Each structure stands twice: as C-alpha cells, then as structure tokens.
Amino acid sequence: MSGSFRTGIGGRIRRERTVRFRFDGVTYAGVEGDTLASALLANGVHLMGRSFKYHRPRGVLGAGADEPNALVEVTRGAGRTVPNVRATQVELYEGLEARSQNRWPSLALDVGAVNNLMAPFIPAGFYYKTFMWPRKAWDALYEPVIRAAAGLGHAPTAPDPDTYLNRYAHCEVLVIGAGPAGLSAALAASRGGGRVMLVDEQCEPGGSLLAEPDVRIDGLSSRDWIARTVAELQANPRVTLLSRATAFGYFAHNMIAVNERLSDHLAQPAAGAPRERLWQIRAGEVVIAAGAHERPLVFPDNDRPGILLAGAARTYLNRYGVLPGRRVVIATGHDEAYRTAIDLSRAGVEVAVIADLRPRPTGPLVEQARALGLAIRTGCAITGSRGGLRVTHARLSAILAAGKLGPPDEIACDAVLMSGGYTPSVHLFSQSRGKLRWDEALSAFLPDVSAERERSAGACRGIFALDAVLADGAAAGAAAAGIDAPPALRSTAVDADPAGVMGAVPHDRGPDARAFVDWQNDVTSKDLKLAVREGFQSVEHVKRYTTNGMATDQGKTSNINALGVLADELKRPVEKIGLTTFRMPYTPVTFGVLAGMARGDLFDPVRTTPIHGWAVENGAVFEDVSLWKRARYFPQGAEDMEAAVRRECLAVRSACGIFDASTLGKIEVVGRDAAEFMNRFYINAWTKLGVGRCRYGVLCREDGFVMDDGVVGRIAQDRFHVTTTTGGAARVLNMMEDYLQTEWPELDVWFTSTTEEWAVIALQGPKARDILSGLVEGIDLSPEALPHMALAEGHICGVPTRLFRVSFSGELGFEINVPADQGRTVWEAVWAAGQPHGLTPYGTETMHVLRAEKGFIIVGQETDGTATPDDVALSWAVGKAKPDYVGKRSLARPSMSAPDRKQLVGLLTEVPETVLQEGAQIVASRGLKAPMPVIGHVTSSYYSAVLGRSIALAMVSGGRARMGETLYSPHGAGEIAVKVVGPVFHDPEGARVNV
Amino acid sequence: MLVITCPYCGPRPEIEFAHGGEAHIARPQDPSSLGVEDWTEFLYMRANPKGLHAERWRHLHGCARFFNALRDTTTDQFVATYRTGEPRPDLAAVKA
Ligand SMILES: [Zn+2]
To answer: What was the ipTM of the complex prediction?
Structure first.
C-alpha cells in the first residue's frame, strides 16, 4: 500500500525525497515535508493509537496541536524516548522510530480493549465511586492496577543526554502565530522601527495558508505572498522570526514563555547540539494570532479510525498531498467542510455524500459544491458509524420536524470527514487573565477585556474571512507598534459562513450509544449528562468529575461541545455556564527545557574557599553548609568519621589544630556612627569596646529571638569587623541595610560584605602561639600585648593580616584573616611551621564537638527562632544600660522571662558510652505512654574524646532550675536516663584560653 | 515574572528584588515606652488587603535600596513605586 494515498502533484512536500521510517516495527516510506501522521495516512494507515480509558482503536483526528488520538512515542535510544507526542506535529526524518501507545501486545490486538466491553460499568466518576474503600486496597491494589492499565506512554528511565538552552529576550512587539493574521501583524509592526518577534509553532510560517494553495493575496499566490512577507521580515535586523517555537505560557507583565525545538526534526542532530531552547520574552505589546481549532461532531461511534476533522483532511490533501480515503462521507454543520469536499472531489476522491445538519445551508461554497454535482443532504444527521479498525459505513438520518429522525441509511465509505465549525484559540488570552465573552452567533468565547498589554487578531478573536483576517492582523500589529495601519490587502478567498453547531448531534441509538466529546480522555456526552444528573452544576466540577478537557490537549477539540451538552442538560444558556480555566502549557513541554542548564553540577551554585584545593588534596570529606563546601573531617588511612574526629579533637586539646573558617560571614561596618549603629543593632554594648579588642556579638530580631551571632572586632574608632554565621551573612547584611535605610537614615555608616575578601585560618590549641611566632611581623603575640579577645593588624608571611585572638574551641586560639588570594599560601606556610608541633587539620565535625564541650551555642542548632538570649545562657551579653536595641522591647514582655521557658542545659547520660540522638525528646519520668508531655529536646550530642564520655546540649523547660535532676529521653521501647548539668563540660573556669 | 520599577534604576525583572513586607510601619522612637498592646500592634499586626497594598521592596541585586510600592494584590499590577520616606501616593493623583 506504500504511497498509495499520495497525490501526484501539489502540497509543500518534496516527493522526490523519500524518507524511510518505522512505526510499531514496520518500515514505511514517506517524503520530505511529511509529518509522521501524514506519512502514515499516505500509506493508508489511520489506526495510530488506543484510547486512554477504553482502549478503543483510534485514528488521527486532526492535523496539528489539537490532536487528541495520535499520541506516539518517538525514540532515538536510551534517554531519548519522548512519549505522548502528537504524530501530527512530528516532522518526518530518515530513520524515525515511533511506537503507538496504550496497547498490549499490539495496536491491532489490544488486551486492554476489554475495558471497552466493560464500558457500561465504567461511567463518569467511576474511580471516585469504586476505589474508595478500604484504604489499604487503594495503595496495594487499585492504584497500581489503574496506573498500569491507564496512562499514556512511558517516560524513559535513563538520564536525558540532551542539552537545553535558556534565553531571555525583549521586544516592543511580540506576535504569536505566523498565519495570515500574524504575518500581517508582524509586517505592520516591523514598520514602526521597534524590535519585533514573531514566533510560530510550525516548521514554516504560513499557518492556515499552508493548506490554501489556490488563494491569491495582493496578486500573489499564497505561497509567494508568504515568501514575500517572510523575506521582508527576515531582511529587517530588528525582526526575529522563530519557527518550531510554541508560545506555551503567558505570564504576568507580558512575559511569554516560548519553547523552540531545535533538533527533533533532524535525522542526525550534530553531536552536542542543543535539543530545545526556552525563550522568556518580555514584550511591550503582544499580538495573539493563535488561530482556531476545528470542532468535531458528537455522534455515536464518532471515534473510529478513518473519522477525522474535515479541515484536517483538507490540510493533508493540500499541504501534504495525501488523500484521507477513496470514498468519503462529509458530515458537517459548517460551510468549511464544503471546501474539503470540493478539493477532494477535484483530487479524484469520491465524495459519497455531504450530510449537512443545517436545514437550508446557503452561500458560495455550498453553491460551488452543488455546481460540481456533489450529493448534498441537508437537514441530515450522522447518527453512527460501522467498522472495526477502520470505518466502513456512515449512518445517516434525516432530521424531521420536532426533533424526530427519519429511517437510517448506511453509506459505505473509508473515511468520514466532519466539522462542527471553528473554536477560536483563546488559550493564551485566557492565560493572560483576560476576560472572555460569549458570542452566540459564532458559538464561541471571544477575547473581551484585556488584563495585559495585548490584543488578539484574526481567527482567535472570531474573524475568519481572509481579507478581514489580513486587515485585522495589520491593524493589530500597527496599533501595537503605535503607527497607522497599512492599506488593506485583497485576496481571492471565498468566504464561509462562520456560524457552526455545538453540542451533541441528535440520534436514535438509545441510551447506551457512545458519542465522544473528549477523545483524549474518553469522555462521552452520556458521561456529561450523568454528571449533571448526579448533581454537578459548575463547569469546573463537571470537568473534574468527568475529566473532560483535563488531558494534555486541554480540551482544544472538546470544550465547546462539552458546554453545548451541559447547556442542553442544565437548560441554561452557555454564557451562564462559563468556560473552564486554561492553564499553561498550551502544548506539553519537556522537563528538559524547563530545567535548561540547571542540571548536575550546575543545578545550584557551589561556593568554595581559597583553601578548598588543599583540603581536597589532603583527603577531606566535605559537607554542604548553605552553598559552601566545607571540609568535615580529614580521615587518615582507614579511619571512619568517628575515629577521625576523636583524633582531631585530641590533637587540638593537646597540641594544635588548623581549621578553614573562611566561610564565616564578614561585614565591614564603617562610618562616624558605626558604634552608634552597632549599639542600636546588636544586643551588646559597643561604645566602650576599645580599638584592637573583640567582643562576641548577639543579634536579635525585633521580636526578641536570637537571629545570629559572631565575634566583632573594633579595627578603628569608626570601623568594625563583624563576623556572622556561615549561613546568616546575607540575612544579617539585609537586616542592617533595612534598619539603616528605613529607620535610621540619619546615621553615617556603611556596610560592605567582605565574606569573600578574607580567607580565615583558625589555629587552635596550646601550641598555637609557638607556631605563629616565627611567621608574623609587627605583631606582639605575648598574652600581655594580645590577650584573649584582642586583635592586631600586621603581616604574616609578608601578607597583611588582621589577626584575631579568639577561640571557638576553649583553647588558646587565633583566627588569621588574610586577603583571599593569599589564603592558600599563608595556610601552607602555617601548616609547614606547625609540623614540628603536631599541627593537625580538622573539619567542621571536630569544630562542633570542641565548641559543644565548651557549651558554645550554634545559632540554628541550639536556637530555633524562638530562643531568647537568656534561654541560651547569653544574658551576660546584653548591654542592659542601653536605652534601646533591636529586640529590647520584646524581651521585656513577661512571657519572655517566664521560668518554664526552655533553657540551655548540659545532659550526661547515665551510661557514658551512650550518645543521645540529636533532636530526641526529653521527658520528666520513666514509663510514660505516648502521647506524653515533652519538656525539652536534645540540640547537640557527641562523644567527647577528651572527657572519655558522651555529652549533649539540650533545651529543657525550666532547665537551669533542674541541675542534678534525672530526666529521660524516650528511645525504642524504653528510655535513656540523663542527668542535667551545666552546659560547659570542659575547663569551666576558662583557664586554657587565657594563656 | 513581574516587572518592578525601582525608583532609582527603572524597570527591572522581579528576580532582582526582594519583598520586604508592609510599608509605612515605622519603628517607634522609644519602644520601651510602649505598652504591650501598642508594641504587639507594631510587631505583629499587618494589613492583608484585597486590592491596593503599600509594601516594601528592596532592589537587592541592583542598587540594593529599599523603596515602597503600591501593588494591587488581585492583579499583581504595580500602580506606583516611590522612595522610602515619601508619603503613600494619593491614588486619585496616581491615576490622573
Ligand atoms: Zn534600584
């Protein structure tokens, strides 16, 4: 049968270029310019899929984006299988491999089709009614079975090997759709001189004109007019024309998302070439020229292969040179189907009959058909079809007075071409939140009130006559560009009556007849009526109950017919029922293009310190702390984390450790009023802090809860070196700016983020001074000159430094701040100098243990956004004499000093080896049954090598009054007994730090 | 994605900005003199209007300045943006 339905001439295909492809394992020949659907039709193949719910055999219905039936899986190998693509939009290429879906074992013989026989038992809402109970059966039985039986294609499990791009663009005028309206609009707008973008979903511009070879516009054939228009647009450097580019989403403030398909149509995409590009276009003005979708007729058994839309059949004939059959029946309620009949008849197809629902159709197209001698039955309903995997007969009945039907008549045919009229595509307009109005004469919702700076033109706003469409497009484009419209163009098009029919065709086939409204989701007119009888009134409820319009085609072919059925059943006018909401995407979009480059290593930014490379080379195991990669521990040999951390901890306590603290947030606070700002902002008092001294600062939010902490050094009278937590730097800087800009603009102070300016090397341990002594210049390291909580500026290894004498470990400690680009050099010099002293690198895990041994909190670990400074034993830090600071008034509220607040305490397990779980609950007594009153929780818990036992910090209600009490942490079937102690486990006098 | 007009830099995409809550809620001059109810009012009570809302934005990835905006919460349209410290624009004047 190969090629037997291909015409000899015409169309926009290249007959001499054969393209071989496979569908369900069978090799076929098509030609260059075909879609998968047109190539299959040329081979006489109409059967392209099985329906979603009933597994009914289905042929192609349309020729474009509205296709609900011919959904196929196209594969190019592992990770490159694309399910659920419309065969009508798959451009043919040599070697294309496609499979039908939703069938087993084969398309012609499908076991799931038993669902079709079961149809009387699968009414609307079937799943809601049937699979409600018992709950366990849903998880174990119903859902897996339903998912296996239903569903469409299969998503590939291998990673997607393709590359996807993302691009932002701006233009004065964006035109969506390159049919006659869109081309006219873009051409007119381009003469305004601004940036114009024209995006179109098809492989070439022209839209509906691609199926109108005989029409002449402005004295040119349609083909030449398209070519002339495109040439002028392409010659204009201010115009961007994108084909294979679907505008799928309309977002606030004229942001349009466009998916441009770059390589899916190529037989051999270049290696590494991107597959798709996501455009995010911000447009000053938008012209929507999205065209219209043809409406099927809702009659019993209207879904057999071989039954398709009349306009689609005409597209296959005129654009692809493909005949839909040899002997066709045209069933219509609209003039456009006559064009199909006329063109097919001229191409040698036998038009058995034109069955027109309308009693007295008139107009030039009807007259042309009559003049050709085509058989026309007016006032005639199609009431059924016959056939197996292909339609063989159409059943026709005359519509008599009072809605009665005459005796049926079966007409042999191999295709039925139907049309109920055209539905303007208002998807994008509706996505823009524009308001629609119902047009009774056109049986259509049309754009009414705009919400964005956009306008619709042509068929998508109910203008169908070609001359009017061209003029409307030109006017819209000119208006969008702010210029006068160009003179109108004349065409030779013969106009059709735009009115059509909607809802169900009358029939005499009894209550069980199935007339499909939504092909993709297998919804029949009977389902819609049942929903109404069961009490559903709102169109949104009916949609969800029946699933009408909820498939990936979003009801492009079904919405208006469904409304017609509902209006009849509810006995209410359509405009009182309303339309369901359109959502993006207009047609399905790959996850790949939405993800773009944000995959793998590029999914999230990674921040590394200047010393990162050294840590990698020395075997560090890293952890993520916000976006930073931080060395967690440095295992030696076969050490696990526990062993490494014990060794690192003991090294710091007995000799010295070196730690990369570069991720600490750093903010330089400078200006005449720097101290005043610090006084108002932090809870501490700063006025008396001398130059060259440091202080541990605590920051509260205005509600009195601890937000951040860190050591602050006073570099000069008007300059503070503020450090923050690693994760809190941006938050703190934002809050500083907020208070300065909006509350205290009179203060003369400036903030600069210096987090990445400084590398910070922490040297902690009794040998720290010995190691440093040979490296610094101009700094006296003696305890008298540089005591604990002092800082000095000078040089280290020839590099300028701010040297802080601070300790987060409880040992003698220094934090060496050097310019980031010198960080690794200085680190390596310190490392070398430390070798004779047993210097050991340590990571964040050891840092955590060391500070917990000293009872130092970590904001976000001990605190959770509801802890006051006093709750975490920091009331000593409060500058109590200050008249005000952020959080002071809130801290004065009575509840903030209630004795039963959770307070920071230490916990020691009765069994020293037992390490509590962080996050574990604390209760007051043994043997409680859940739910039990919880009085606290564990915030930090470690094994302490220096103490030879476990330690934990916890927040416990009234904890400071519970010293010595035994509490319990529920664990498994029992509980772990713990003793409440102070939070400082090691060197509580602080002798070790003051040496 | 919205377009927001920074009073200092002009129209920029939403991703450059950070929302900063309701505008025109000044921190009291002397918080300690406030009673619990007044302080609670300042700290926690916020308008949640359907329609025009005066709110703070910060041009975080631009000039880094805070400013105020009148936004319609039902349509996401910005009616006006203005500098911190300036009074909320008179709607009649904005429309004119
Ligand atoms: Zn700005």
So the answer is: 0.97
